[in-house]
From TrEMBL:
InterPro entries tied to this protein: MFS (IPR011701), MFS_dom (IPR020846), MFS_trans_sf (IPR036259)
Keyword Repeat recorded: no
Species annotation: Kosakonia calanthes
Organism superkingdom: Bacteria
TM helices/strands, residue ranges: 49-71, 78-97, 103-127, 139-158, 170-195, 216-235, 255-274, 281-299, 305-325, 345-363, 369-388
Name of the molecule in the record: MFS transporter
Keywords: Cell membrane, Membrane, Transmembrane, Transmembrane helix
Domain Major facilitator superfamily (MFS) profile intervals: 215-390
Signal peptide per UniProt: none
Length: 390
């Protein structure tokens, strides 16, 4: 059994993790807002413009299981510090890549950025450590709600620093990104998580038995599709706006409101889950995601992109938070890091496909093809959740 932490430490963990979520989210926003544009400048072929974003997601998928093993062996703090160190290197190497005009170095920075994001996605689960069952969904959603600040801080970093070094667009932005990651490392030192007893660490059911539980695969699938489509559209949107003659500032604001919409509902999503159930909240998220696609299909003015991105953020929050809250029901305390890491590995493994496909579709067939291509997986996931019992 996992020891329940005192209420004061639970609250402190939530505050620290929510703050770290905001800072880590700002790092991701910077990369998503600039990655395709810098990639388009540095890449030998315009079709590879979104490759850095794909490599970013690849870094997430590749590092989730190792970080899970590190947390299981040495505790979550070790994983947190390792991940934030990768975040610092991300900014420094990306700035250097822009200065020396190196696409391969920029891709390496993107991979390390994905490693940082990989540990950041575990913040939501860390908030449930040592917390009673009745409060877990609320703790999880509150930490995700901390990402609202990322929607403000990330675009501010881009807009406020992109032209500081005129000869090298975004170089100063990436240096600022490294500083933010360093601050995040200090904040995470305030987090304490109870460790299961030694015998519990060696026990637990085989993963095959856990995966075979009714509803487990459906829950993972719903969360994976919610995240994949969000990444699929968000990756292509800034570049599409650029291609349609819209300003970088307009793209930055679009991403800003998108990220606020992603994390803002976190302050009440937990209550919705407790009242209506995780599956219903997840299904609502998939439906909102479909509405974001329809908004995008209505035109290519700034307003169309912004409405689509805002709805996309809301859909992601409901879909992914609902799935994340449900996953907690499928594991015991001694199994948490393995099951949570497996879930996130699948989620971000699926995202790799969507991230690379978005760039290829955008450059070959245009923005509308990206939008239409997202409807099928959203529809399948929605039907899987809604008609699960039948």
């Amino acid at each position: 059994m996992e020891t329940e932490l005192p209420a004061s430490q639970q609250n402190r963990n939530i505050v620290c993790l929510a703050t770290a979520q905001a800072l880590a989210g700002a790092n991701s926003v910077v990369f998503y807002a600039t990655g395709a544009i810098v990639g388009n400048t540095l890449a030998p072929n315009s079709a590879l413009a979104t490759l850095p974003i794909t490599v970013f997601v690849l870094g997430m998928a590749a590092c989730i299981l190792p970080f899970g093993a590190l947390a299981r062996r040495w505790g979550r703090r070790a994983a947190f510090i390792t991940g934030t160190s990768a975040g610092v290197l991300t900014g420094l190497l990306a700035a250097l890549a822009v200065v020396i005009n190196s696409f391969s170095l920029f891709c390496l920075a993107a991979f390390l950025g994905g490693a940082y994001a990989a540990v950041a996605v575990s913040f939501r689960f860390a908030a449930t450590d040592g917390v009673g069952k009745a409060r877990r969904a609320k703790a999880l959603s509150l930490v995700m709600g901390g990402g609202v600040a990322a929607g403000v801080l990330g675009p501010m970093l881009v807009t406020g620093t992109m032209n500081i070094w005129p000869a090298h667009l975004f170089a100063a932005t990436f240096i600022a990104q490294a500083i933010v990651a360093l601050i995040s490392a200090g904040v995470l030192l305030g987090v304490q998580s109870p460790a299961p007893a030694g015998e519990a660490m060696r026990s637990g059911r085989p993963l095959a038995d856990i995966v075979r539980q009714p509803g487990f695969a459906r829950t993972v699938f719903g969360g994976a599709i919610s995240y994949m489509i969000m990444n699929f559209l968000m990756t292509a949107a800034p570049l599409s706006m650029h291609q349609h003659g819209l300003s970088q500032q307009a793209a930055n604001l679009g991403i800003q409101w998108h990220v606020i919409a992603m994390y803002g509902p976190g302050f009440f999503t937990g209550r919705l889950i407790n009242r209506f159930g995780a599956n219903r909240v997840g299904a609502a998220g998939l439906l909102i995601t479909a509405l974001s696609v329809l908004a995008g299909l209505m035109g290519t003015d700034v307003a169309h992109y912004w409405v689509s991105l805002i709805l996309l953020g809301l859909g992601w929050n409901f879909g992914f938070t609902g799935a994340s809250a449900k996953i907690i029901d499928y594991h015991r305390p001694e199994e948490k890091t393995r099951v949570q890491s497996l879930n996130d590995f699948i989620v971000f493994g699926v995202m790799i496909i969507g991230s690379f496909a978005s760039g290829a579709l955008l450059n070959t067939f245009g923005w509308n093809a990206v939008l239409w291509g997202s409807l099928v997986p959203v529809g399948v996931a929605f039907l899987a959740v809604v008609f699960a019992k039948r």
